[in-house]
Amino acid sequence: MAVLVVAAHDGKTVRSNVANAVTAASQMGPEVHVLVAGSNAGEAAKSAAAIQGVAKVLNAEDAAYANWLAEDVAPLVVKLAPNYSHIVMAADSVGKNVAPRVAALLDVAQVSEAIKVEAPDTFVRPIYAGNAMATVQTADKIKVVTVRPTNFKAAATGGSAPVEQIGGTGAGGLASYVGAELSKSERPELTSAKIVVSGGRGLASGENFKMLEALADKLGAGLGASRAAVDAGYVPNDYQVGQTGKVVAPDLYIAIGISGAIQHLAGMKDSKTIVAINKDEEAPIFQVADYGIVGDLFQIVPELTAAVEKK
Amino acid sequence: MKVLVAVKRVIDYNVKIRVKADNTGVETANVKMSMNPFDEIAVEEAIRMKEKGQATEIIAFSAGPAQCQETIRTALAMGADRGVLVQTDAELQPLAVAKLMKAVVDKEQPGLVIVGKQAIDDDSNQTGQMLAALLGWSQGTFANKLNVADGSAEVKREVDGGLENIKIKLPAVITTDLRLNEPRYASLPNIMKAKKKPIEVLAPDALGVDIAPRLKVLKVEEPPKRKSGIKVKTVAELVDKLKNEAGVI
């Protein structure tokens, strides 16, 4: 049986993590289909069809799907589910919202944030903020799985799967979309950036994050933060890296003024190279850092910004 | 309107957990246990609704071993009115907890259920959404702000790109994110008062719910350790290492 990847998108393209989810899905079954539900999502459906390894794209058009309300999208996925062995979503804010609703409607368990596919019914997932790894096996006929995108390589583009139009299931009237307050940024998206510059309580104010922006812009990096910095109001919530925020695994993670609570480490310790800049040499962040500098970040960061070449 | 909140007993967030030597799970014996931090936020939100006159009664629900009564007592000390414990020593997974909660919701008929968005032990982030599905209710997940009005609720949600506003019909399930509020500490007089508040204890069988785990845990292991790195003295040295040793800039 085929595996169905449910893709989030912005109307024009599917999210970049769909390519990672396709890789995970291809390890679960012989054929991968992608569902692109939306209102005027034809372009997004085409972008899904271009992901290598996708055998078919299902494009469901319905005004009800315009804003990805779980109450309206879940019934569509449930309707399609009997044709599939697995329902797969990236473990982002859309997948985390929709997938459990689908699983409960199907009366099956969900495997959350799988980081490895051991067998079609067996997955490895982090628990306790990544301080333990559980290998779990599901006996359910339809397996609902969210996958952590950073643990699966993105499938390449260049495919040309057929796009099939399917009917929608309409609006249930339980929820309606009002609007969004999205952070505007020209920088690379945090979870897919090659380099991430991240700031913590040590920055002492939102104003001081400008210093990190300068470094990030020079490196072509995404900008992140610890929970402490978000709670203090220095930066918006979508900057948060950690157990309950975003999980990143860039080639280079630069932690600035971040002490390194286990909840933060959970979101970044899979980074290839970690740099820590902190005035407290006992800070736990140094235990996971490949390179650490003990010192005043207000001196070190501008110096570092001046020393690196513009990307 | 009655509000039902769910509180889970988990290993305290400050404890460094240890994987059992036989790889069957995580050591919980003689470890400090506390209320799941996201559930504290759920309790606080319900209390604020009561203080604003929007909630008439707050019921604190938990499921698990007898010691979960302590977790419920914490919620009662914060300001919840009474507790319901579905007591079992069996392993409980999110779908089973959602079904137990549904049975209690069917009985109690709250107008709103507030739960933490995830528990910091299994990190599943499922129960609230599953409960909403089983009840056929709307769901306001990862709530950053909650505004309950007549028959509906406005929820500001923390999403990947920032914040999103939705309007949902009541009854509904809300799951809390970190910025929804800052939970209060229970005062000593309130801790004393909480001892007299009632906790109803039920058995899963009595609710007619099959709680058998659907996921079999084959093993639990330590994550791979990062080898410890080095400290460098100067920015020049750091840039050199990043360029020539790590090859990342």
Proportion of strand residues of chain B: 25-35%
Taken in chain order, the helices and strands of chain B follow as EEEHEHEHEHEEEEHEEEH
The CATH homologous superfamily of chain B is named: HUPs
**How is the quaternary structure best described?**
heterodimer
Describe, in plain words, how this protein is organized in 3D:
The complex is a heterodimer of chains A (311) and B (249). Chain A has 8 helices and 16 strands. Chain A has 311 residues and is an alpha/beta fold. In chain A, the strands form 3 sheets. In chain A, strands 5-9-4-1-2-3-10 form a 7-stranded parallel β-sheet, with helices on both faces. In chain A, strands 13-12-14-15-16 form a 5-stranded parallel β-sheet. A 3-stranded antiparallel β-sheet of chain A has the order 6-7-8, with no helix packed on it. Chain B has one domain: Rossmann fold, CATH 3.40.50.620. Chain B is built from 6 helices and 13 strands. In chain B, the strands form 2 sheets. Chain B has a 9-stranded mixed β-sheet, sandwiched between helices. Chain B has a two-stranded antiparallel ribbon with strand order 2-3. At the A-B interface, helix 3, helix 4, strand 5, strand 7 and strand 8 of A face helix 3, helix 4, strand 7, strand 8 and strand 9 of B.
Keywords:
heterodimer; A: 311 residues; alpha/beta; Rossmann fold; 2 domains; 7-stranded parallel beta sheet; 5-stranded parallel beta sheet; 8 helices; globular; B: 249 residues; 9-stranded mixed beta sheet; 6 helices
Outline of the structure:
Chain A has 311 residues and is an alpha/beta fold. Chain A is built from 8 helices and 16 strands. With 249 residues, chain B is an alpha/beta fold.
Layout of helices and strands:
The complex is a heterodimer of chains A (about 300) and B (about 250).
Chain A: E1 2-6, H1 17-26, E2 32-38, H2 42-49, E3 54-61, H3 70-80, E4 84-90, H4 93-106, E5 110-114, E6 116-119, E7 122-127, E8 132-138, E9 143-147, E10 163-166, E11 175-182, E12 195-199, H5 209-219, E13 222-225, H6 227-231, E14 252-256, H7 262-265, E15 273-278, E16 291-294, H8 297-307
Chain B: E1 2-6, E2 9-11, E3 33-35, H1 37-51, E4 57-64, H2 68-78, E5 82-87, H3 94-108, E6 112-116, H4 127-135, E7 138-148, E8 152-159, E9 162-169, E10 172-176, H5 188-194, E11 199-202, E12 215-221, E13 230-231, H6 235-245
Parallel strand pairs in B: 1-4, 1-6, 4-5, 5-11, 6-10, 7-10
Antiparallel strand pairs in B: 2-3, 7-8, 8-9
